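input
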Amino acid sequence: MSKKILNNVPINMAAQPAVKDSPENHAMLQDEFGRQITYLRISVTDRCNLRCVYCMPPGGIVKQPHHAIMRYEEIIEVVRVAAAYGVKAVRLTGGEPLVRPELHNLVRMIADIPQIEDISLTTNAMQLERQAPLLAEAGLKRVNISLDTLQEEKFKHITRYGSLDQVWRGIEAAEQSGLYPIKINTVTMRGINDDEILPLAKLTLEHPWQVRFIELMPIGNQVPWGEDFPTPREAFIPVQEIKSILEPLDLQPAEKTAGSGPAREFKIPGAPGTIGFISPLGEHFCSTCNRMRLTADGHFRPCLLSDIEIPVLDEMRAGRPILPILQKVLAVKPEKHELDLDHLPEERNMKEIGG
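output
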């Protein structure tokens, strides 16, 4: 499936629920399947200080020039309009968002928007030790930290760079700054870290963290990862198998926590933390999807697992309003992804979308 950049999506306002009423009357963004969009994920950069094998090709990717990346003021303009029509939560992603200078200033501007109730961040934590206090003071509520292994050498192998000790210091700084709850995101991969699923889950016995196991998603990564790595198809572990590995822990259903998103949550009896599963393939959650994505170069992506995109940055710089663009996004948001039909997103890798 090739990328579809949609500029002229016809909107039949009689047929499309899209934007109802007006912001003064509690309007909501709603797609044609009745799903209310309350969550906006914003990629603030396509740059990253790691080169994780499942996220970026060995040779890297062509970086967008600076003029093609949304300025903070442009991002805020989008958030203000989306918030006026029902978006309540914003997550900042990348690439690695903490490599974007003065990110705390963007957080502060978002926090000043009255309708926004929650601001979170997904990070590899390599620069979190220094930035956590500034981000928390600016209004950041919580962080998701990517961590696929507890072994230093394996960490370097998976990320091609990086320091596991630096990540741990970042996690400690996040806790000390009150960025809670800490969520640990682990992409499970056969032959790479499947032997660590149990040890990673047991972190919840010692910490009040949410450890979430994520199925490997086929987004721009279906090429060889390099020497000593399995093929992407061989590396995939379905959520059912992940759960079977964790059977010795006697997991019990846990009450769903605020901001847990699509994760299905469980607890080891007596543990302060929880264990979650995010399974876009094995047990997809499309029917409850409440989100849209904004790429760093200014495209709305209504579904992570589809190449359909709608440009907004060029329209904004040409002086055109944002609301009709949001209507287009709602009109083309699919009911579900088509991975079961082997329709894989091909035009961007995960680092360019923000997950």
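quick obs: The chain has eleven helices and 13 strands.
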